[in-house]
Amino acid sequence: MLIDTVAWVRVEDGRVLCARPKGKDVFYVPGGKREGAESDLETLLREVEEELTVRLDPETVAHVGTYEAPVPELPDGTVVRMSCYTGEYGGTLTASAEIEEVAWFSYADRPLVPPVDRLLFDDLQAAGLLR
């Protein structure tokens, strides 16, 4: 089974933005699953606004990588695909009602995120973007 997601990669001062949904103990790079026939861009814009109450500028959104990894807590063969995008935003980053906590993670925080997010962390570290 494939879980198809998109994520917003926001790096500032050597740290990447992560969010912890209510009821979960794991942080994720913000984003989520598409609804219906949504495009990656439509999903990204909706999810970021839902989770962080900011609006991405669609003109600045750029694909930075797609990652796939197994999901250990789900049945064997379950894989998550995360298509990652950067983009400028307007507004103030604020955790919405569905987000418990927002944090800025360095590479040292890599063990706190799921396997698919760790692949992104590895690439950001290799590019010299994470502390």
TrEMBL record:
Hydrolase recorded as keyword: yes
Coiled-coil spans in chain: none
Annotated GO MF terms: hydrolase activity
UniProt keywords, alphabetically: Hydrolase
Keyword Hydrolase: yes
Domain Nudix hydrolase: 1-126
A Pfam match: NUDIX
Gene3D superfamilies in alphabetical order: Nucleoside Triphosphate Pyrophosphohydrolase
Protein name listed in UniProt: NUDIX domain-containing protein
